[in-house]
Amino acid sequence: MKPRAIGYWIATILIALETLAGGIVDLTHGRTGVFSGPPVVDVVTSLGYPVYILLILGIWKIPGAIVLLVPGLLRLKEWAYAGIVFELSGAAMSHAIQGRTSDLVAPLALLGLGLLSWALRPESRTLGILLPSTTEKTVTLPNRNPSFPK
User: Fold this and answer.
1) Which are the contacts of 37, defined by CB distance < 8 A and separation ≥ 6?
2) 51-60 pLDDT tens trace
3) Which of 23, 44, 101, 137 makes a 20 to 30 Å CA pair with 53?
């Protein structure tokens, strides 16, 4: 296995496990750490969010984590990565706005892990080329509307 593929799978398994565990914690209103830490309800309410946000996040995190690991479902993978970016960047921003700079480390580190997983995806797990190379030929289509100014 190539180093890039190894990096992809390590990052993907870690972010998928974190997303899955986070979804379960959100739905069960557990603690932010595996065995310790404040209850997740206390964290979200102290940031100004209603408790029901945990239900919404928890419901979407679990299938998102699964989609990252299964083959195929490329469009859903893109949505799962987008959801991870929105959730973790939103968590970091919420902590920053509240002045809790020490609480920025976890969401930013996990955001980096999610972006690393996305960036290292093999071609079989992408929808297409993000930035086409400059060596590819471009095709100019003829103007089929004669009334359209050139």
Assistant:
1) 31
2) 999 999 999 9
3) 101
